[in-house]
Amino acid sequence: MYRYLGELLASRLAAGAVLAGAEPGGTAAAAGGAATAWSGGRCPRRHYCEAAKKEDNPNFFKMVEGFFDRGASIVEDKLVEGLRTRESMEDRRHRVRGILRIIKPCNHVLSVSFPIKRDNGEWEVIEGYRAQHSQHRTPCKGAFLRSVCTGAFLESYNGIRYSLDVSVDEVKALASLMTYKCAVVDVPFGGAKAGVKINPKNYTDNELEKITRRFTMELAKKGFIGPGVDVPAPDMSTGEREMSWIADTYASTIGHYDINAHACVTGKPISQGGIHGRISATGRGLFHGIENFINEASYMSILGMTPGFGDKTFAVQGFGNVGLHSMRYLHRFGAKCVAVGEFNGSIWNPDGIDPKELEDYKLQHGTIMGFPKAQTLEGSILEIDCDILIPAASEKQLTKANAHKVKAKIIAEGANGPTTPEADKIFLERNIMVIPDLYLNAGGVTVSYFEWLKNLNHVSYGRLTFKYERDSNYHLLMSVQESLERKFGKHGGTIPVVPTAEFQDRISGASEKDIVHSGLAYTMERSARQIMRTAMKYNLGLDLRTAAYVNAIEKVFKVYNEAGLTFT
């Protein structure tokens, strides 16, 4: 059954889609050193972010700050009105602007350099970074980055990154995005991010282990890792193996006497305290995020589409962890994948591509190119004719240069920052729905939160209640059967009580994976409802990104305001 928010939402969405942000006076000056970002002063309302420079390749951190500015300019008056203090209206506004200034920058950035001895006897100096954007909630949470930089784009989700493209600005941008992401889905973490500046394809497994363990020690020496301080997770070209090395290094050294030491990192193997469902979490969360909006009749009517996945086509840019699992779930629920792209090329088939067959082919051949049940796509996968476009690669893929050529009606941001402000403006003008990254790819950090809680509790989900729930369900069936026999007798033999297929699947109680999947689905649904209500409240039309930022800002602001500002 499809949901419908009501005629009010539909009418406001229609109005927002027509206006597309072209309110008079909504443009900030960009030249002559004029302030283009929210800086504590009053900014006119805009339906897209104009705080970043009007260039086709804006600085990633400035891009995120620009989106923050947009949300802050909209919500400032409400925050002032919501303060319940004895202060004058002027002092209240000073307080609000001050806290917004506190939220925006990165609190700490650590840059490290350390030597390693290569297997061939040579010595090399490795550079790494860790940015902590906010400690309004602790621990900080963010990924550990490592990726291969050999093409136009890379598959991405929040974690520690190993990449030749890693820079201070990149980790600051991703750390700030993580703060807002956690707030949107009500995960009580501050935002952080880490990166190591290497191409992992140029190193042996032994060398990668050396780098990972040494980087962990560098973070530990400066207090940038710990169960209650800062908890990394996997990202580009890192996974369970690297997270296991980090956990073992921390637990064997600085965390030797800490019973919660293995909670210093998430995304670990199950044997090291990991959780079932973590690997697919970001892709599964992306599916649930799309599901919540595509089943909303109000939004689909604005886009001229019918609710549900049944007749929808989609294309995925990036066939890594996020792209693969989102493709699996969308395919399972009836949508048809018509194109898949990677750094070395794209393939397409208008009749659909099976995710399992493509995964098996890539595992065997190391590439999706040459897949026998698809053709090589000439041109950009971002411009292919489909209903849903999923950029699950790297940042700044959708720009002013190609936004006019996008044919999809829904853009589901599986990567971090795939859309520039200028492209975002064009999509609003073209009545294209962009489901933003800070909501849509939050599945990974949500399940990381579940893993962190599991590590602190030292017991897997469902272990204490599994048998009790199973016995209770069987007793319930027996009670129903006995009641029917007492009422109608046993003249024809016992009255069978046969559970439905759905109940039979659940009769044995919820496993850890069941609990994780249920918690993730609930988190994504609740957050989607909040975004929809905010979009309606502020008459934002299809500007879901700004609605998500408004929600994040309100929640982070509330923590700072109610906790009080120490030593000021």
Could you walk me through the main structural features you see in this protein, from its secondary elements to its overall organization?
This protein starts with 6 loop residues before the first helix and ends in a 5-residue tail after the last helix. By secondary structure, it is an alpha/beta fold. The strands form 2 sheets. It has a 7-stranded mixed sheet. Strands 1, 2, 3, 4, 5 and 6 form a 6-stranded mixed sheet that branches. Helix content is 43%, strand content 12%. It is globular and about 85 Å long.
Main traits of this protein?
568 residues, alpha/beta, 7-stranded mixed sheet, 43% helix, globular
Write the layout of secondary structure elements.
Layout: H1 7-19, H2 60-82, H3 89-103, E1 108-117, E2 123-132, E3 140-145, E4 160-162, H4 168-184, E5 190-196, H5 205-221, E6 230-234, H6 240-252, H7 281-294, H8 297-303, E7 313-317, H9 321-332, E8 336-342, E9 345-348, H10 355-365, E10 375-376, E11 388-391, E12 410-412, H11 421-429, E13 433-435, H12 437-440, H13 443-457, H14 466-488, H15 501-506, H16 512-537, H17 544-563
Parallel strand pairs: 3-5, 3-6, 4-5, 7-8, 7-11, 11-12, 12-13
Antiparallel strand pairs: 1-2, 2-5, 8-9, 9-10
Instruction: Work out the strand percent.
Output: 5-15%
Question: What's the assembly state of these chains?
Answer: single chain
Average pLDDT over all residues? 86
Largest sheet strand order: 10-9-8-7-11-12-13
In short:
This protein has 568 residues and is an alpha/beta fold. It contains 17 helices and 13 strands. Strand 12 (410-412), helix 11 (421-429) and strand 13 (433-435) form a beta-alpha-beta unit.
